[in-house]
C-alpha cells in the first residue's frame, strides 16, 4: 500500500479512491463509508478520516460560511507575491534550494514587536 | 445466500490500480489533444480561460514540463495561472484553518498561509516528479494544504489542545450518555445523541481531532455512527462481518475514550474490553 520509494511521494491508490468517493459525493450520491471500507479495507482508516472532514448532512461547511471575512483573492495578494518573488525573482537555475519560510522572515508591512519576542495571545484561539 | 446491499455496492467499485490507470488514460488523452508541447499554441491552450478549460492536472503537467526544460518564464506564467484557477479552493482552505481567530488577525495570516502554500506547491509541482499532481490534483492539493496548515499552526503557536478541560463541556455529557446507553445494551436505532449534524462548529472540530486518535476500528465505527447514522448491521458488516454485539462493544470503548479525553484525562484501559473477548459467544 505505502509508496516504497519516497515517503514524501503520494500514495496514488489512496488518492484515486478519495477522488472517486468525493466525485460521488459531489454528484449528490452520498456514498456509504461502510461500502467503501468493505471494498478497500486496507484504506479503512483513511476513509474514516476523509468522511469525518465532510460536513454532516444539515451543516454548511465552515469554509463556505466564513470565506467572506477573508481576502477576496489570494493569488494576487502579498503572500503569494512574496513566494513568487522568492521562486522566480533571482533564480537562474533549477536547483531545489531551500526557500524562505514565514517564520524566518518578517513581512515588510509588519510593524509590531520584533521577531523572537513572545506573543502570549497566540496560545489559544477559541 | 444473496450478497447484502453493502456487499453488492462494494463490488461495483473498481480496484485502486484500475482507478489509477483510468486517470492516466484520461490525462494522456487530454495532453495528446493539446498542440505541440512547448509551442506558443500549447502555452495559449493551457492559459485559455475558455470553458471548460484544461484540467488542473494538465496545467500542473505544463508547469513541470516548462520548468524541466528551463523555460522559466513559461513556468512562471503557467504556475500563476494555476494559482488563479485554484484560488477559490485556497480561500476556502484558509477560511477553514483560520476561522477561529479574531477577524483583525485573519487578513495577515491568510497572506502568510498563502505564501507557505505557494512555496510548497512550487516544490511539489515545479521541482519534483510526482504523478499525483497530474492525475489527482485536487486530492494532492488537499493533502498539501493540510500539511502546510499543521506546520504553520505549530510554528505560530496556534495549535489548539483538543482536550477539553471543563467537564461541563457539552460533548462530555453526550459521551457519558452514550456510554450509559451502551452499558444498558440499547440498540442503535436512529441517530439519537450520536449525530454530528447537531454539534456546533467548535465541537465538531474538537471531535474530529479526538477521533483521529482512536484505533482504526473504533474510528471507523464512530464515523459511521456519527456522520452517517449507520445501524448495528451496517457497522458490523463494514468491520469485517463481526457480530452486532461486537459493534456495541467497539462503540462503547470509543465513547469511553472520547469521554475521558473530553474531561482532560486518560481512559481506564482495564475497562476497555477487547472485541475478541466479547465476540466469543456471537450475537
General description of the model:
The complex is a heterodimer of chains A (126) and B (283). By secondary structure, chain A is mostly helical. Helix content of chain A is 38%, strand content 0%. In chain A, helix 2 (33-39) packs antiparallel against helix 3 (44-53). The longest helix of chain B is centred in the middle third of the chain and has 24 residues, at 103-126. The two termini of chain B are 19 Å apart. The model of chain B is unreliable at 161-168 and 279-283 (pLDDT under 50). Chain B has 283 residues and is mainly alpha-helical. The chains are: A mainly alpha (126), B mainly alpha (283). The interface between A and B is large, with 74 and 92 residues.
Write the layout of secondary structure elements.
The complex is a heterodimer of chains A (126) and B (283).
Chain A: H1 12-26, H2 33-39, H3 44-53, H4 62-66, H5 78-88
Helix pairs in contact in A: 2-3
Chain B: H1 5-11, H2 16-33, H3 40-47, H4 56-68, H5 72-85, H6 87-98, H7 103-126, H8 132-135, H9 137-155, H10 170-183, H11 201-211, H12 216-228, H13 232-238, H14 244-262, H15 275-278
Helix pairs in contact in B: 4-5, 6-7, 7-9, 10-14, 12-14, 13-14
Amino acid at each position: 500500500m505505502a509508496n516504497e520509494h519516497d515517503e514524501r511521494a503520494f500514495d496514488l491508490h489512496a488518492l484515486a479512491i478519495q477522488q472517486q468517493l468525493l466525485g460521488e459525493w459531489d454528484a449528490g450520491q452520498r456514498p456509504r463509508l461502510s461500502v467503501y471500507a468493505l471494498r478497500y479495507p486496507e484504506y479503512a482508516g483513511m476513509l474514516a478520516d476523509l468522511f469525518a472532514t465532510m460536513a454532516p448532512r444539515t451543516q454548511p461547511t465552515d469554509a463556505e460560511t466564513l470565506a467572506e471575512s477573508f481576502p477576496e483573492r489570494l493569488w494576487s495578494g502579498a503572500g503569494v507575491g512574496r513566494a513568487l518573488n522568492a521562486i522566480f525573482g533571482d533564480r537562474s537555475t533549477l536547483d531545489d534550494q531551500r526557500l524562505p519560510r514565514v517564520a524566518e522572515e518578517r513581512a515588510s508591512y509588519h510593524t509590531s514587536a520584533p521577531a523572537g519576542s513572545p506573543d502570549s495571545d497566540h496560545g489559544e484561539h477559541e | 445466500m444473496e450478497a447484502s446491499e453493502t456487499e453488492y455496492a462494494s463490488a461495483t467499485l473498481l480496484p485502486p490500480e484500475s482507478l489509477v490507470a483510468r486517470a492516466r488514460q484520461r490525462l494522456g488523452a487530454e495532453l495528446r489533444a493539446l498542440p505541440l508541447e512547448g509551442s506558443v499554441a500549447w502555452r495559449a491552450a493551457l492559459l485559455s480561460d475558455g470553458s471548460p478549460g484544461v484540467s488542473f492536472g494538465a496545467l500542473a503537467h505544463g508547469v513541470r514540463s516548462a520548468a524541466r526544460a528551463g523555460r522559466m518564464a513559461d513556468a512562471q506564467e503557467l504556475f500563476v495561472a494555476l494559482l488563479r484557477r485554484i484560488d477559490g479552493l485556497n480561500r476556502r482552505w484558509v477560511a477553514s484553518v483560520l476561522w477561529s481567530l479574531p477577524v483583525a488577525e485573519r487578513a495577515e495570516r491568510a497572506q502568510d498561509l498563502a505564501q507557505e502554500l505557494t512555496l510548497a506547491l512550487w516544490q511539489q509541482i515545479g521541482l519534483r516528479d510526482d504523478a499525483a499532481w497530474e492525475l489527482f490534483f485536487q486530492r494532492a492539493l488537499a493533502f498539501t494544504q493540510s500539511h502546510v496548515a499543521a506546520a504553520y499552526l505549530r510554528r505560530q503557536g496556534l495549535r489548539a489542545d483538543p482536550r477539553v478541560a471543563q467537564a461541563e463541556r457539552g460533548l462530555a455529557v453526550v459521551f457519558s450518555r452514550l456510554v450509559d446507553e451502551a452499558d444498558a445494551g440499547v440498540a442503535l436505532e436512529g441517530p439519537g445523541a450520536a449525530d454530528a449534524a447537531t454539534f456546533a462548529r467548535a465541537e465538531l472540530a474538537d471531535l474530529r481531532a479526538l477521533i483521529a486518535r482512536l484505533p482504526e476500528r473504533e474510528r471507523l465505527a464512530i464515523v459511521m455512527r456519527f456522520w452517517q447514522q449507520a445501524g448495528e448491521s451496517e457497522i458490523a458488516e463494514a468491520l469485517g462481518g463481526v457480530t452486532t454485539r461486537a459493534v456495541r462493544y467497539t462503540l462503547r470503548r470509543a465513547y469511553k475514550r472520547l469521554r475521558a479525553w473530553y474531561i482532560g484525562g486518560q481512559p481506564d484501559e482495564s475497562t476497555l474490553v477487547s472485541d475478541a473477548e466479547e465476540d466469543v459467544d456471537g450475537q
